[in-house]
C-alpha cells in the first residue's frame, strides 16, 4: 500500500508563507540599510539633535517613585554610579531581539530604603551607551559614549554633570579646546579631586575597523580644563597597547592599575581585524599636569606571576568593574573562540573577582560549599539551555557581559547587561543583584527579578517554529543560504563591537 500524503492545514500553510515573506523582507531590509538605501538612514547628528530638542521641552524636574516590579527598561553598556548612599542609573542600550534603542533615561535607587525613582530632568544629555560616569563633589559626571545604529556610529566627546541635590543636568564647557577625542569604551575614575580618562575606541561605521587609543587625560573641575598626561618620548619606553573596555583600579598611593581590555589586530592580507582580549596589567604613576612641575607620568608593566598573584580571572572581555577604597570588584565577561565559517563559540562568565590594589593580588569571591575544596571552575553559559536556566530559581546572577556595577556602603550591586539566546538573539537584562562586598562567601540577593525569563520564553517559541520550517524554507527560498551568511556576518560584527565596550 502506498504512503498517503499528509493533508496540510491551510491556516498553517498561510502562516508559514507569511513568515517566509517577513524573513525575506528582513534580509532585504538589512541589505538596504547596509547600502544606505533606506530613507530612515538619516544622519545620526540630525537624529540626535531631534532627540535633544524634545528633551529641552521639559520645564521642570519630576521624580516619580516606581511601585511596579519592572523598575527600568532592559539595558546593557549603561552606567551605575553611587553618589553617597544613592545609585544613579543612566543611559545604555536596550535590545528586543530585532532592534536596539539607545537610551538617556535616569533612575535613582535609594539603597537605605530599597526605593526606585524615575527622574525626568532638565537639559538631559543625548542618548548614549558605552559612556563613563564618576561621582565627584555631590555631582555625577558623564563623559563620551556612542549612539549607534545597524550601520553607523556617532561618538561623543562632551562632558556633563548632574547635581545630586537639584537633579538638574548641566553641560560642562571647558575653558580650552584641548580635550580627549570622541570615543566610547573608555574607562574613567576619580583621582585626587579630578577625573582620569584612559583608552577607548572610535568607529565611524560597521564597514570600518575600530580605531583604538591608549591616551590618558585629566579633567580638573577647579580649572574647568582637560589636560593630557605627559610621558617621556624616549624610544623603547613601554606603555600599554591600544585598548578599550579595560579595568581601571585606583590605588591608595595614588597610582592606577590598568588590567585587561580588548583591541583588534590587523593580520597580513586580512580584510577584517582579529579581536584580542588583553590579560596584561600596567601601573600608572601620575604626575599631575595641573601642578607646576616638570615631572613626567610613567607606565610600568606588572606581571601577573610576580607582583600580582592569586586567582586571576581567565581571559575575557565585556566585564563590569567598580572600586571602593583599596579594592576593585570585577564581574562577568565573555571569551570567544572562532568556530566554523563566520560562527564563534562564546563562553559567558558569572564569577566575581576582587583586586586588592594594596597587596596587588586577585581574590575570587564565589561562595564555596566546602572551604577545603578549590574554587569551582568558571561556569560556561550554554546558549541553548538559557531558557531553562532563566526560568529556574537561581541563587546567583546569570552570566552576562556589558553589565554595570557599583559599591555603595558595604554592598556590591550588579545591574543589567546582555547575553545570547540561541544563536541569533541578544537578550538585554533588567535584573539587579547585590552581595556583601567584604565577605568572600557572601550570598547573592536578587533585588529586582527582571523580565528576561518571560522574554526569552517568547523568543524560544519563535526559534522552535523556525527550526520546524527550516527545511521548507531552504527549498522555497533560493537565496536563503546567501542571505543567512550575510546576516550571520552582520551579527558577528555587531557581537564583536560589544567586546570593545
From TrEMBL:
Compositionally biased intervals (Basic and acidic residues): 10-33
Residue intervals passing through the bilayer: none
Organism for this UniProt entry: Pelagomonas calceolata
Pfam families recorded: Kelch_KLHDC2_KLHL20_DRC7
Domain of life: Eukaryota
Gene3D superfamilies, per database record: Kelch-type beta propeller
Protein name, entry field: DUF4110 domain-containing protein
Chain intervals with Acidic residues compositional bias: 462-492
Region ranges (Disordered): 1-33, 452-501
